[in-house]
Recover the amino acids of this structure.
């Protein structure tokens, strides 16, 4: 089965700084997504990462705060910019594979603590 | 709009007890339904899924049946183990729709 990896697995950052999270899949995917899971909460979709074009953001999320790149079919990055303690969350990437409609598979997550 | 409602936790059971976690959904058309599990410190793992009415998804002793008439997808396991302690999320997804909707999650603790 395919492997979805994320880097870093966790980080502690100072407010006002930025962190870039990487998501790498070892086989081609059709779709890539980024989610946020605030402490003790469910998942909220941040954006769909589109290959070679701007990401599609959900209501309440903006590109200036969460810039996303997807340069190829198997790799994407999410940057959390100008961080505040409210950004402390788990950030998860998920993917869809060809021929498996609707099902999303998740990476292990990046645990971010902002001080 | 599409939404998922899960029973509130936390749920605490003794080993070998029977587990039910209720999940109901609201959706237009015919969504696919999922259960994901999140073990401590990990991401979400797909536990099982069902794509049409009356389908039963099963994995690792867990089962859930897609009930269109009651718009439900309850998760069951006949005999839980300590290793089943985790947070369980019910979710739905529509064909050609990127938006997967998750329930609030139910934390299960199984005691020896």
């Amino acid at each position: 089965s395919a492997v979805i990896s994320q880097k870093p697995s966790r980080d502690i950052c100072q407010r006002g700084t930025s962190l870039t999270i990487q998501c790498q899949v070892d086989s081609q995917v059709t779709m890539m997504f980024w989610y946020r899971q605030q402490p003790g909460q469910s998942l909220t979709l941040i954006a769909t990462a589109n290959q070679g074009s701007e990401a599609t953001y959900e209501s309440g999320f903006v590109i200036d705060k969460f810039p996303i790149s997807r340069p190829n079919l198997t790799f994407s990055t999410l940057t959390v910019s100008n961080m505040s303690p409210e950004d402390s969350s788990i950030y998860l990437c998920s993917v869809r594979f060809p021929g498996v409609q609707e099902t999303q598979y998740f990476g292990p997550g990046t645990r971010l603590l902002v001080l | 709009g599409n939404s998922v409602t899960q029973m509130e936790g936390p749920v605490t059971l003794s080993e070998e007890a029977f587990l039910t976690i209720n999940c109901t959904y609201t959706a237009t058309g015919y969504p696919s339904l999922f259960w994901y599990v999140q073990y401590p410190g990990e991401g979400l793992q797909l536990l099982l899924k069902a794509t049409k009415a009356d389908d039963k998804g099963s994995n690792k002793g867990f089962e859930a049946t897609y009930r269109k008439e009651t718009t439900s997808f309850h998760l069951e396991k006949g005999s839980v183990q300590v290793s089943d302690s985790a947070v369980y999320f019910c979710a739905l997804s529509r064909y050609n729709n990127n938006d997967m909707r998750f329930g609030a999650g139910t934390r299960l603790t199984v005691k020896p």
